[in-house]
Amino acid sequence: MKVTVFGIGYVGLVQAAVLAEVGHDVVCVDVNAERVEKLNQGIIPIYEPGLTPLVTNNFQAGRLRFTTDAPFGVEHGLIQFIAVGTPPDEDGSADLQYVLAVAKTIATYMNSPKVVIDKSTVPVGTADKVKQQISAVLAERAVDIQFDVVSNPEFLKEGAAVADCMRPDRIIIGTYNNQPVDVVRELYEPFNRNHDKMIFMDVRSAELTKYAANCMLATKISFMNEMANLAELLGADIEAVRKGIGSDPRIGYHFIYPGCGYGGSCFPKDVQALIRTSEQNGYTPKILQAVEAVNNKQKYKLPVLVKKHFGDNLTGKTFAIWGLSFKPNTDDMREASSRVLIEELWAAGATVHAFDPQAMEETQRIYGIRPDFVLCGTKEAALQGADALIICTEWQQFKAPDFDFLKQQLVTPVIFDGRNLFDPERLKQKGFSYYAIGRAKSVQSYDVL
Question: Is 215 a catalytic residue?
Answer without folding.
Answer: no
